[in-house]
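Progress report, Aim 2. The chain analyzed during this reporting quarter is listed below.
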Amino acid sequence: MFMTDVDGNLIASLPAVAQAENQNFSSALWREGAMGSPDVYISPVHPRPTDGRMATAIVGAVRTPEGNVAGYLGVWVLVERMGKRLSSIDVADHAICQVVDQAGAPLFTKNFAPFTGPAPPRLTKIIDEIRALKNGAIERDGNIYSFTTVDNTGWMTIVEQPRAVAYKPVRDLFDKISIPALWLIVVTFVAALVAGRVARRQAETTRRIEREVIFNEKILANMPSGIALIDPESRHFLQANQAFTEMAKRFGGLPEGRDIYEAIYDEVKIAPSESIERVLAFGTPYQIVEHAFVDRDGMTRFVNVNLLRLQTSEQTIQGVLYLVEDKTRDMTLRQELIGANAAKDHGGRTGSQRRRFARCSPGA
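Predicted structure tokens for the chain:
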């Protein structure tokens, strides 16, 4: 997660970017897209500055009530994490799934590991053809490529399958047809029905794969910070990642069996209800830092809470961005450090007093 100013200069990030690596942080890949987008912008894949692993940046512009950009808030999503999710999907026999970003760079190898090197010329040529067509299927070098675009991202999903495997059900069917002329019309009608059913099954399989490989909001589920979006009309939660849901139940007062998407904002007792209404009404951001909450196990939690109003360039309010970050560990470490320093200072003063007393005593 990272935050920048209006010029794209880094303010803060999690994990932190070392001072020596600040020069490697560049907003050129996403700043122009995020500035012109009413929604979040998904950048081309690139090495993450903190560790060099391939990732994409999901960035949204934070705007003032007048619609001017005040800065940017974004998260990095690792390509290898996306690959692990996609590798769990069962695909058709001998099929290879691939995702291509808006720059034409493939994300994965055949086993869904991050693709780090340049693409082979043959693959680059096929990707260029696919990007020009945007949707559909083509046949090249004995393989069938089915592809579609991912809405609002410029990315594309591609499924590659050998032609022999793709058409095997139909070929097997016709290999078995040996009909006398007397039954030609009847058998032709039956064959057409069976072939149509096989084609529909193949098309349904392709559509299922395309739906399952589309990049969506579930990638955010592994983020440690809680993120949610409140609907400005119904006051229900439109989106919430797993971390936010767990925090709402642990110390936000949300009942264990209550679905977060059925709850309204005042059922989660983290940020005050009037603060959320004030953010919606006036657009003024709200923040509390290291506020103490007692969770359901009786443990004190120190939490940072931020509320931001999201709106388009046409001043249409999209909702309130609800950010919750558990700072308990940092607070505990800070208190332990303060206690250790205090003990050290006390020990130093006691030693000095003993030495002065020894010098002043008659037998010294």
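Confidence is low (pLDDT under 50) at residues 211-216. The chain has three domains: 1-78, 89-213, 223-343. These observations will guide the mutagenesis work planned for the next reporting period.
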